[in-house]
Amino acid sequence: MDIIVLLPETSEEHIRHILKKLESKGLKANVSQGTERTIIGVIGDTSKVTEEEEDAIRAMSGVENVVRILKPYKLASREFRRTTTEIDLGGGVVIGGKKLQVMAGPCSVENRASLMLVAEKVRDAGATIFRGGAFKPRTSPYSFQGLGEEGLAYLAEARKKTGLPIVTELMDSRDLDVIMKYADIIQIGTRNMQNFRLLLEVGGVDKPVLLKRGLSATIKEWLMSAEYIMSRGNQRVMLCERGIRTFETATRNTLDLSAIPVLKQLTHLPVIVDPSHGVGKWDLVAPMAKAAVAAGADGLMIEVHANPEEALSDGEQSLRPEMFATLMRELKPIAAAVGREI
Amino acid sequence: MDIIVLLPETSEEHIRHILKKLESKGLKANVSQGTERTIIGVIGDTSKVTEEEEDAIRAMSGVENVVRILKPYKLASREFRRTTTEIDLGGGVVIGGKKLQVMAGPCSVENRASLMLVAEKVRDAGATIFRGGAFKPRTSPYSFQGLGEEGLAYLAEARKKTGLPIVTELMDSRDLDVIMKYADIIQIGTRNMQNFRLLLEVGGVDKPVLLKRGLSATIKEWLMSAEYIMSRGNQRVMLCERGIRTFETATRNTLDLSAIPVLKQLTHLPVIVDPSHGVGKWDLVAPMAKAAVAAGADGLMIEVHANPEEALSDGEQSLRPEMFATLMRELKPIAAAVGREI
Amino acid sequence: MDIIVLLPETSEEHIRHILKKLESKGLKANVSQGTERTIIGVIGDTSKVTEEEEDAIRAMSGVENVVRILKPYKLASREFRRTTTEIDLGGGVVIGGKKLQVMAGPCSVENRASLMLVAEKVRDAGATIFRGGAFKPRTSPYSFQGLGEEGLAYLAEARKKTGLPIVTELMDSRDLDVIMKYADIIQIGTRNMQNFRLLLEVGGVDKPVLLKRGLSATIKEWLMSAEYIMSRGNQRVMLCERGIRTFETATRNTLDLSAIPVLKQLTHLPVIVDPSHGVGKWDLVAPMAKAAVAAGADGLMIEVHANPEEALSDGEQSLRPEMFATLMRELKPIAAAVGREI
Amino acid sequence: MDIIVLLPETSEEHIRHILKKLESKGLKANVSQGTERTIIGVIGDTSKVTEEEEDAIRAMSGVENVVRILKPYKLASREFRRTTTEIDLGGGVVIGGKKLQVMAGPCSVENRASLMLVAEKVRDAGATIFRGGAFKPRTSPYSFQGLGEEGLAYLAEARKKTGLPIVTELMDSRDLDVIMKYADIIQIGTRNMQNFRLLLEVGGVDKPVLLKRGLSATIKEWLMSAEYIMSRGNQRVMLCERGIRTFETATRNTLDLSAIPVLKQLTHLPVIVDPSHGVGKWDLVAPMAKAAVAAGADGLMIEVHANPEEALSDGEQSLRPEMFATLMRELKPIAAAVGREI
What we know:
4 copies of one chain form a homotetramer. Chain A folds into 2 domains: 3-67, 2-Layer Sandwich (Alpha-Beta Plaits), CATH 3.30.70.1140; 87-337, Alpha-Beta Barrel (TIM Barrel). Helices cover 35% and strands 18% of the residues of chain A. Chain A has helices spanning 12-24, 51-58, 112-125, 149-162, 176-182, 196-203, 219-231, 259-266, 275-279, 282-294, 321-337; strands spanning 2-6, 28-33, 38-43, 63-68, 87-88, 94-95, 101-105, 129-131, 166-169, 185-188, 209-212, 237-241, 271-273, 299-303. The first copy, chain A, has an 8-stranded parallel β-barrel with strand order 7-8-9-10-11-12-13-14, surrounded by 7 helices.
C-alpha cells in the first residue's frame, strides 16, 4: 500500500485526475479527508508500481508527496523467505549456518610462490575460503591492474593444494567465462554494486555471488542490487559490508556494523563483513573483526599477506599470517558467546 | 615530492630500511630532524610512485604517515595544460568555449513521436545538444530498462530532423560498437564513474566523453577517472557535476556547485552541470541552473519532457518544453554577467 | 495527519491497544486494510503530537513504522505565513525585500584601526551591514578567542562612523546583555544551531536573529531551531546557509545552494548565504557569491579583511577590500537578472 | 614540524617573505628544492602555531598548501600520557580499568516512582552507574524539556536507594551549580560538543565529564573539545561515541565502532559507547552493545525504561529492564574474550 499526500486546496478535478491515473494501473484508491491534509491510500500490490510510475504520480499537480509503505524488493526480503539462506560450497563449507566462514588471503594475486605460502598458512589458521584478486579495480590507471587469468590459475592451484574454495572479483561481463572456469564464489566489488548489467550477468549463472556494499549505498539500494541478481534466477547471494564513505578521515571508510542486525531483520541473505577495507589499517582489523562477530555476522573477509611491506596493493591493511592466526584464536570465544562457531 | 613522517623514537635501523626501499625505486631522500618528529623528504618524480607502493611505505615499521604533495593525475591537470580544452562537435558547437552549450531532452527515450516533438522544442528554445537514454541504469530490476538500439535509432532520427548532436549513456562495454554508430558524445553515468574497464574502453575510441561524477566521489577521484580515459589516448573528456550524496533528504542529492571553481583551478577539462538529477525536483531546476551558470559552468544538461506526468523515468525532475524555453531566456543575462554567451 | 503502518499479522488486540492510545491523546483513527499491510490514518491536528509521543507509538508492538505527514514546524512554515518576512533594520535596510543586503567585514575584530578602515571600504563598495566577531568559537583552546566587549565597542564605533548596522555572534547566554547593548543583528553560529537554551534566550528579546545552519543539520532541523526562537515571540529570524559537512575535502564544507529554493518553498524567513565559510578559500568566494544570488538568496555574508595574511582568524577565506568592491560590481547584473537589486 | 608546499614558479622574493614571517614567530625553516615542488620544513614546536596563524600562512602568495605534521591536541594525546586514564568514582567504580562500567537508565527523568523502580532493576542487573536526563535537548520547542532540578532530586534519591553514582547532562552554563550539587559525572551532549564556553566551564570544576561525540564531528575535533576541558585543569574526561550522521536512513545514526580502536591509539582517555542513540531502535541495541565490548570499549551507556511505550522521550530506543538483564548476562563472555570484566 502507498500513500499519496495532497497539497492543501487541491481541486476536486485534480483529485479525480489522480484517481483515474491509479485506476489505469489497476489500483484501487481510498481517499480520506484529514483536518490539515487529504491523503489517498492506494490499495493493491503496489510493489508492482515501478519507480518511474511513482515519480510520475509525484509529478502530478496537487500531489505533495508519495509515501512508499512496501519495500521495493521481494525475493531478497525476510518476508519472502523466513529462514536465513544457506549457501553450500561443498566440503562442509556452508555460508549462513551456525559456523562462521572466514575468507582470507591477499588483496591481489602477485606471484605464485607467496600465494601458495599464504594459502597454506590461512588454511592452517582456520580460514575456510581463500580470497585473492586477479582483476583489480584501481583508482589510478598507472597502478597494478592484476595478473588476469594467470592469477586465476594460481588461485586454482592454491585451491588444489589447500582444498579451500576460491572467491575472486569479476569486474567486467566479458571476463565472466574465465571467472566461471576458476572461481567458487564470484565477488562483485564496491564500485560495481550498481553496475546493473553485470548484476544481471551473474544473476544468470549457477555460482554463489558475494555482493559488496557500494561506497555510499543505502541498505535499501544494496538489497535492490541483490534483487537484480536474484530476479535472474541466482538465489545464492551473500552481502558483504566493507565500510561506507563519511566525513571521518581517521579511517579509510566507516565500517557500518549496525548494518548487520538491520540486514538480519530485512533479508534472509547471509552477511559477511570485510574489516580490512572498512578501516584500511592493519592494526584496526582485529578489533573490528571481533566486533563484527559479536554483532552477528555470518562470516568475515580478511586480507592476509606474507609481507605487507612488499604488497602490490593495500599492504597497509593486510595482516601477517601469524597475526591472522592469533585473531582466529581470539575470535572463538566471541563466536561462542553469540551461539556460533568459528 | 612526498613527505614521510616517522614515529617518535624510530630506530636508525628502521630509517635505513626505509631509505633503502626508496633508493630501490630510484628516489632520493632528504632526512630532516625536527624537535618533535623526523621527516623524510622524497625527491624525484614521485607521481610515478603508485598507490600501492605508497601504501607499502605507509605499512613499514617506523612510519607514522606519508603525505602526498603532488597530484596523482597528470594529463587531466591544469599544470599539464594551461588552457581549457575545447571540444568541437562540428556545426559550431564547441564545448569549453565562450558560448555555453545546453544539453536537453528526456531522461530516457520512450516513443518516437514524443521524442521528435521534444527535440524540435528544445532546439527552438536554444538547446545545442540533444540528450536521451536508450540504456537506462535503474535501481530496480522491475523498472523500464530503456529501448536499446531502437532508442538509439530514434535519437539519430531526431538529430537528422533538428541538426542537434546526440549525447547518450554507455552502460556496458559490449554496447560500445552500437553506441559508436549513433552517439556524438558518450555519457559515462554516475554509477559507472569507477567502472575502470569501461573507462579504458572509451579511452580507446575517437568520440568525446561526458563523465558524470560518482554519487560519493571526491573531486580527486573524479579526475583520476578522467585520467583513466585520457591515459588511453582520448583527450576529449568533459566533467558533469550532478549532485553528491549527503544526509540531506529535502533534495535527492546535494548539487556541489563549488566543484565548478575548484575544477577550473585543478583541470583544463570543460565542466557541465546537471541540475535535474542534482535536485530531483523540477521546480528546483531553474534556480540551480542559473546558479551553475553564475558559478562558471561551461554547459548544462537539463531534462525536458513533453508530459512529465507520463514520463517512464524521472518525470518528477523534468521540465515542460515551455518552462525550458523560459529558463533559456532567463539564463542569457546571467551568462552575459559572467562574460559568457548562451 | 499521520500514518501508522502495522506489521503483517498484527493481532486485533494490538490494534485496539494502539487505537486506545490515540484516543487518549484526543486523536481519531481510520483503519484501512490493504492487501499487504494494514495502516491507521490518524485524524486531527497531529502537529501537537510531540516527537516522544511519536517515538512511543513507534515502539508499540505491532507497529512497523510511523509516517509523519505534517511538518513539525508551524510558525516558520510558508503555510503559516505566505509572504516572505521583511526585517527592517531602519535606515532603509530591509532584509527579505527586493534589494539584497550584503553583510561584510572581518571574521573577528582584531584591532580598532584596521576595523575602521575595513568598515569604510566595505560601506563604500556597497555593503549595507557590517560584520565582525567579538566572541569567537575556535576549535582549539589555544587559539585567539576574540576581544569580547572591547571588540563590541569597536564595532559600535565603526557603526557610528559608517552608519552600517552591526551583526555579531552570541556564544553564551551570559553574554546576551552586553550583545544587546551593541548589536543590531544577533548571530547564532553553526555550532550553536541546536544550543536550544540559547535559542530560547534570543527568542525572548527584541532584536533580529541570524541563524546559521548546523554543520550537519537537515533543512528540517534548521527550521525547527528557527521555530524554537519564534515560539518565544521573536519573529524576526533570518536563515544563513554556510556549508554542510560532506566527504569532499577540496573545500572546507560543501555550500548547499539548493537549500535556497527549498527554503523558499518551505518557509517565509529570509535566506542569507555565507560563501566565505562555505568554501574556506578566498578565490572560490566570488563564484559562489554569484551563484547564491542567481539561486535566489536574499542576502550575502562575506568576509573582508584589510590584510588577510595578517588575519588572526580565517585569513585564508577573506577577500581584500578591492576584491570585494569588484565582486559587488559583478553581482549587480546577476541580481538584476533574477529581478533583484544589490 | 609543519610543511609548507610552494606553488611552482614562486619567486625568491615571495619565499623570503614567507621565511621572514616564520622567523617573526620564532620558527626555523628548512627549504628543500624538489624536482616538481619546493617545500619549506618548519622546525620548532609548531603545536604552538594556532589555526589562524596557519590559515594566514596558507593565505600568503606562493603557498600552495600547509601540511600539519603534529597533532593539534597535547593533553589528550597518548604521546602526552602513555597509560589509559582511570577515573575513580569511589565505591569501587573505576572507569578505564579492567572492569567495564555500564551506565543505564531512562533517557529522561519522568516521574519519581518509575525512576526508583528502574534504578533498582538496572543495579540488580549489574549496571554500575545510573543515567537520566533532567535537562533535555529536544529538537522541538513543543517537546518535553525535562523536569529540571526536580528531576535531579529524584536522581539523587535513586542514588541514595541504590548506591549507584549518577550521570546527567548539563546544557547551559547557568545550570552548572545545580548540576554540581547532584551529579557524579557531568554529561556534555552531542549538540554541545563544540559549545566551547560550556567546555571551559566544566574544565574548571572538580567532577568527571562524559563528552559525547558531535553528530558530524571528526575524531580530531572531538579530541580538541576534550583538550578544551583539560586545558582548564579538569583531566577526568571520558569520550562517548553515540553515532555519526551519514546518508543511511535505516538507523537514526551510524555507530562508528572503529572510533574505539582509533581512540585507543590517539588518546589515553576512556571510551564509552552509547548504542541506544547510535541506532535509535531497541532491537538493534543488544548486538551493537556486544560489538562495542568486543571492539574494546571501556564502558557502555544504555537506555532502560520500565515501559518504553509510555516513555516521554526516546521510547523507541529503550530496553525493558528484563531485556537489559539478559544483555548484561550475554556481555560477560564477550568481555572475558577481550580480557575484560563486566
